[in-house]
Amino acid sequence: MELDLYVALHYSTAKFYNALEIMSTFATALYAVSAPVLDIPFITVVQVLLALVAAGAFVMIFRPLLVGIARALVLVVRPKLSREQRLARELAARA
To answer: Where are the bilayer-spanning segments (predicted)?
Structure first.
């Protein structure tokens, strides 16, 4: 029983160190790839974030207007049929 416990502990410790080695390799590779990308000025990041927040606020505030505009554009592209046209289509489908 003790031997099995020792083997299990040794096996799990070896797996843990192997996982640490893989994570270390991944972190090194990630840093090597992202180092040129991370060379962005802080003020640029702040400006982009503020622009995204402003765009989100604009959409939230004017959502009913934007939905109405979208519905109007759909009606321009695909207008509704008149009552007579709907009745004629229904009668043609029945026949």
So the answer is: 40-62
